Every structure is written in C-alpha cells, then in structure tokens.
Amino acid sequence: MKSLKIAIAGLGTVGVGVIKILEEHSAMIAARTGRRIEIVAVSASNRSRDRGIDISGYDWADNVLDFAARDDVDMVIELIGGSDGVAKELAQQSLSNGKSFVTANKALIAHHGAELAQSAEDNNIAMRFEASVAGGIPIIKSIGEGLAANRLTKVYGILNGTTNYMLSQMEATGKDYGEILEETKLLGYLEADPSLDLDGIDAGHKLAILGSVAFGVKTDFDNVYMEGIRRIKLVDIEYARELGYRIKLLGISSLSDAGLEQRVHPCLVPKSAPIAIVDNGFNAVVVDGDYIDRTFYEGRGAGEGPTASAVVADIIDIARGRSGPAFFVPIGEMQEARPVSISDRNGPYYIRLHVEEQPGVIADITAALRDEDVSLHIMLQKGSEQDGTVYVIMVTHETHEKRVMNALDQIDSLSSVIDKPLAIRIENL
Amino acid sequence: MKSLKIAIAGLGTVGVGVIKILEEHSAMIAARTGRRIEIVAVSASNRSRDRGIDISGYDWADNVLDFAARDDVDMVIELIGGSDGVAKELAQQSLSNGKSFVTANKALIAHHGAELAQSAEDNNIAMRFEASVAGGIPIIKSIGEGLAANRLTKVYGILNGTTNYMLSQMEATGKDYGEILEETKLLGYLEADPSLDLDGIDAGHKLAILGSVAFGVKTDFDNVYMEGIRRIKLVDIEYARELGYRIKLLGISSLSDAGLEQRVHPCLVPKSAPIAIVDNGFNAVVVDGDYIDRTFYEGRGAGEGPTASAVVADIIDIARGRSGPAFFVPIGEMQEARPVSISDRNGPYYIRLHVEEQPGVIADITAALRDEDVSLHIMLQKGSEQDGTVYVIMVTHETHEKRVMNALDQIDSLSSVIDKPLAIRIENL
Predict the structure, then answer these.
(1) pLDDT tens digit string along A256-315?
(2) What is the span of the domain harbouring residue A66?
(3) CATH code of the domain containing A79
(4) CB-based contact B8:B43 (threshold 8 Å)
C-alpha cells in the first residue's frame, strides 16, 4: 500500500483536529482510500505551545515554505490563514512543484482562487478547499458534483457562525448588541480581527467561493456587497418577531441575465423558512437549481471537528485518486460575470426610525417616503421610551433599493430624527 | 473530445427527465466533464406512448438486455425498477461485460447491492445509485465522500415523500387517513403497489442503502423493521400537536457495539426539531458523526427533476473519471453487522386507546401497564365521542419496547377496548 505523504502548515484548532482524525481513524481511512495517509512534517509559528496532542513524532519545519520543496511531500495542507503573505506563497510554490494542495483558507480562495486553480491546472495537480465554507457541510462537493446536472440559479445561506450565535443570543436572552458582543468576545468566538465577523467580510469570502463553484464564474470578492450586524438592536429583533420574521445575516448570490449578484447583509426572513430556525453556531446553505428545485444543508460552521472533517475529506478524495479542476470546470470555461449592484435590488424593507416625539415628525417622514414613491405596508409606533423618544417601525411594499436609501437620507436630515435610520432588507425565501 | 455512450433502460418519468437534462444541458455538461454524453439507445415496455419528448433520434431496443452486449455502449442506465427480474439481469450482464452501471432502483440495491458491487469491483467498473435515495439531495455522495473523515454513528430521515405528504395533509386539512389516502391516489402519488409507500417498504429499501453507505456494512434489508402509516388517525396527529410533537414516518439506522439497528415506523418528533418542519413531498436526512457532530439535508424526494438530476450527477461523476467502490469501501472491507431487534428499543411511547366509557376501564388499563413496569408521564382523556366511546392518550417514561407491547396485548384483551391499541415511538431527536 503506497502511502500519501502530507505536510501540515498551521497547528491551530483546525490543524490539531486534522492530526487527531488522521491518527484516530488511520485504519478506517486506509480502508476507504486504499492508501495510508502519512504525516511527514508539521509547522506552526510556535513549536512548544501545548496543543493537547503530541507532535514530537513529526518532522518540524521552521519555515513552512520548505514543504513545497521537499521530495518526500505529496500534499501540502495550508491552515495558516490570510489572503496573502505566507499562505499564498505556500500555495503557489506547492502547486508549481507538483504538490497537491488542500486549504481551509477562505480569504486566500476568495481573493486568489482563479489564479491558484489555473496553476493547479497547469501543473495537473489537485487543489481543494471544502473546509473554506461551512466546515460541517460538504457544500462545495454537493454543489460541484452532487448537483452538477443542474443550472444553478441562486445560492444563499448563513455563512458565519459567530454572528448567527450573537443574533440568536440577543433573541434568546433579551440582551442588546453591546452586551452580547462582550460575552462573545469572552467566549473566544470572534476572529482575531473582529471586523471579519461583525462586518460580514468572512461571510463575503465564503459567498464569493460558493457563487464561483455554483455558477462557474471567477471568484469576484471585490464586488461582494457587505454589511454586518453592528447596527442591529434588540428592538429590531423584537419587532421582526412581532411581524413574523427573524433576523439573520445572509450571504446571497444569484446569476441571471442581469449579471452576478453577491450580497451579505442582515435580512428579515419569514419565521417558517427552514433557514430561520438555524441557530447559534450552525451554518446553513440553500441551493436552487433548474431540476432539483431547492435543496437545504445545515451543519456546524466552525470548530475543530467540523472544519478538520472537511480538510480530511479533501485529503481522502485526493488519496482516492480524484482529481479534476478545483472549481469543477476548467479555468478556460469559467465566465467573468458582470456585477449587479446592491442599489439595483428590488424588494420590501423593514425600516427602524428613532425619533423625538413631537408634532409633525410622522408627517415629515411619510412625506420623504412619498417623494421617493416608497409605499408602506405596515407602520408600528408603540408609545414612548423612558426618555420621551419613540421607535417608529415601518415595512414597505416591494420597492427599489435606491428609493429607500434616498428617502432615508432625507429622513436622516430631519432634526427630530435621533439615530441614523436603519433599513433591513426583507427576503421572503 | 471522446464521447461517453450511454443506453437508457426505462422511459418513465425519471428516464424522460434524464433525456431532458442531457439534451438541454449538453454543452454545460461537456464543459464540466470534458466529454460529450451521447445517448446511443433507449428502451421501454411501450415504444409509442406519448412522453412529451421526441425519442425518434435514439436507437430503440425491444430487449433491454441487448444494451449489455452492445460494443457501442459504455454505460447502462437502469430505470426499470423492481428488485429482481430484468433490472437485476441487466445489472449483472452490464457489469460482467464491463459497462458502467447507474441506477435509481432502491429495491435492486437494497436486495442485491453487495453482490452487484462485488461484480463491479471484479470487473473494475463503476456502479452508482445516488438516485435510489432522496433524489433531490446528494446524500449518498455526501455520506460516502463528504463525511468520509468521520466514523458515522447514526443516520435517519424522512425517506418517503408520499407518506410525508399524507401526514402533512392530514394535519393541514383536518381530514382523516382514509380521505387523504383517496386524494393521494387520485393525484397519482402512490406507487403502483401502494404497500411500498404505506407499509414503509420503500423507506426500508432506502434506509438499508443509507446504513450500508454510512457504516460500511453490507445491505441487510431482511432485518429492517418496517411499520407504515396505515394506523395513524387524525386524532393522533392532533394529540401529538397538543403534546408538542409532530408525527413523521422516519427511517432510523445506527451502528453501535450492540449491532446494526434499522427501523422504519411513525415517530413523534419534537415540533422544534428541524426534521419536524419538513412537509409534503420533501425528504430530509440527518447524519451524525464523531467529528461533524450533526448535519442535516433537505430536498425534494421524488419527481422527474430531482431524481433525474441525481442520475445525471452519477453519469457526470463517471464521465469525469471517478471510479472506486460503489459503497465507498471495497466489498472485502464491508462488515456483516449483527442485527438489533426492534424489541430491544428503549424510549418513551405515545399510546392511544379507544375504549367504552364504563367504570373500571382505566383501572384495568393502568394495572396492565403497572404489571409490565411501564410508568406514565402524561395521560389525557377529554370527554366522550358522539358514540359514547372515549380516546385515552398516554405518554410513557422511557421504557422497554417489549414491556409496552406486552402491556398493550393485555389491554387489547379487555372487553371495553374497541380498536387495537396503538403505540407510536417518541424520538427526542
């Protein structure tokens, strides 16, 4: 039995999980692949940190780039992270030197996926990144292989477990954003750069990858519209519930004659939608296609086990001899899609205004909406807060994004309006 | 570009769907596989039936077995159905003659999967059956490849769309079983032999396949416990709802030190469980593994589009050069698992009794339960029916299946008990 020799770059949570699986399930994996998976070397920024596992049996490299040059390495596993720097160099050098390449790095693939896939293709070597999106769900394989008979039209989902946890906790505990943010920090759930979670960037990376695999278009992260959850207040969650909705941070990508739409932002989704009950650290993805209609996938989004499971699934696939293009079509067949701007969105909106209670406020607000032709479906105002201010909640009929934003700019300039008005897009999925 | 030449046996809904996809998406599929998929011949029991598509461009075979012998056929697609007879012969002959073999036939794989996989292995040829379970969900690929890093412990789900439709409709319309059965017949949703749906046999076939793929054990359909939905009354659905549950026909398979458990029967599942809100023609599968924890998949269970999509996904996989064992491990590595009997189940039970309202009835019933050590958690009795009879609904604490069934036998022999008592297993998933 010829072994497959791998080198692991990065020994954080995921790297440790990969080693655990490969050690614990070595016989099972050998039976499934017909090959023994052999870890020949590991590397990380800190050699001596206690990781709860013994790595003394593996060769240590101070410089991960050595992996790309070693003759005794068949495959490099990149678990370092970051869109550029050493992760990118390692990818490029590994592929150029004919090492197959597996990564969990969403930033790397979102930014440089097409370029790296080209290099893999040129060198006739496999590159895989199942773990980069929704670790617990084999969503990239499902889209690229399981649903390959379909022309896919839309893919969307809850792609960031941390913000989903925060929104779930706000609803469950009745605590406001700031308090839950502090708790989430203490739990260690936030990325080292919290903006990646809170501003929707992590979800944006994942969405760019999903859209690319689903539609056969080159990853275009620069044109992903991203808006995070920082402006969501408890009052929004409570009014949403009263209106029959829940608030979720969704990534939505669709390809139509108009072009490629890619957007990450909080949404009001109907309580009864399957995605509405996906809570806490879970991820979920919905894929629409012309023959399957709609399919739905849910699993844990992060953590040692699920992400490591996805990395090892890629290793197993390659050990089984599966090759083929990283994005499931040759780079030459991938389209460059025209981006659709968020300002072209049509749909209903939830609007939250925080105003001083004084005569004429509502008249001014509704005049601003009328001037932009935005018609209201629901308006709620339920008495004042202790400080004499009042929340005004509105739900519009289907309308054009630009009109809503223009109206909100006008409303924001009114002296009686306190906070910047907030619009949350309603997605009747 | 070398074409892949296929022959399609069976031109019912699924066969027609396969032709539609291959015709409509031929360019897309060629881009994805690097090969043109060419339909060289078709066959069905009736040549002239109007199928809504033109099949005059394809060679017609009066005898499907000819496909296995033709030099110009690389792959045979079997969409005839039935566990034996011509479907099995076609499978055997195709594999022996080195044709790759794709089927949607759950009965064939549930009964003869291991034998056919052995033949595929002996002839070094691919056999695939993604469409045999939950067409709209790529569940076999997800389990066998996407989750291959895990030791899987349990797989369960809603595997039969027709009975799920019937249960959903009973709840939605407040009509009783008999009326919904008639409506379902008129809609053409039932198999030609309705027992396959109503008695859980179709779900049993699918469960045997899922368990085999998930646990690497040989399909053992003979040891699947099957109980259908014929005894479910509207009153059960209503009481279940009141108790915080919904009734679903589940297939449940698990592998433990005790052996392989495989059972299909109606269950009370908590309203809040993801599987509880899967309605009408949808299927859903939950897979538990040691590193992924829990993953959930939902999609359309049947119909032209989803099932044909799964068949074509298999064709694409093989066209891409993917081979490997049909059950994802070589037959020699597959275990023969000791079956666990349904009578070894432990858990809570919902019990529905229909009795004449007379003194001493409840005393006799509770005495029978006491004699078997079955303790009650809840008991509901809400006034009499118009005919003076009364429903008594009980929920037990966790107990042993044998004890419940013994107690119900005793209760059944009481003169005041009208219908045969019904127990529905409660699964707190």
Answers:
(1) 999 999 999 999 999 999 999 999 999 999 999 999 999 999 999 878 899 999 999 999
(2) 4-132
(3) 3.40.50.720
(4) yes
Euclidean distance between CA atoms A406 and A396, whole angstroms: 14
Residue with tokens 């809400």: B382
CATH number at residue A195: 3.30.360.10
Considering only the beta carbons, identify the residue of B138, B296, B321 that sits closest to A142: B138
Closest-CA residue of A relative to B138 is A146
> Among A284, A314, A341, which residue terminates a domain?
A341
Query: Using N-to-C axis directions, what is the helix angle for A106-122 and A201-215, rounded to 10°?
Result: 30
Nearest Cβ partner for A316 among B148, B272, B330: B148
Instruction: Write the pLDDT tens digit of every residue in B21-30.
Output: 999 999 999 9
pLDDT of residue B69: 95
Q: In chain B, which residues have their Cβ closer than 8 Å to the Cβ of A150?
A: 25, 309
Indicate which residues of A carry an active-site annotation.
206
β partners of residue B259: B256
CA–CA separation, A217 vs A208, rounded Å?
10
Q: What ipTM was assigned to the predicted interfaces of this complex?
A: 0.95
Mean pLDDT of B113-120: 97
Residue B341 has pLDDT above 80, yes or no: yes
CA distance A265 to chain B (A): 24
Comparing C-alpha atoms, which of B87, B92, B94 is closest to residue B6? B94
**Tens-place pLDDT, residues A301-354:** 878 899 999 999 999 999 999 989 999 999 999 999 999 999 999 999 999 999
Local confidence band at B241 (pLDDT 50, 70, 90 cut-offs)? very high
**Alpha carbon A52 to its chain's center:** 29
Q: Among the three residues A105, A132, A159, which one is the final residue of a domain in this structure? A: A132
Instruction: Pick the residue of B18, B143, B290, B292 with the most A CBs within 10 A to test the interface with A by mutation.
Output: B292
Residue of A309, A313, A322 with shortest CB distance to B322:
A322
CA end-to-end span of chain B: 50
Mutation target vs B (from A37, A128, A152, A292; most B CBs, 10 A cutoff): A292
Q: For residue A255, which residues of chain B lie inside 8 Å, CB to CB?
A: none
- pLDDT for residue A384: 86
Three-state secondary structure readout of A361-404 = HHHHHHHHHHHCCCCEEEEEECCCCCCCEEEEEEEECCEEHHHH
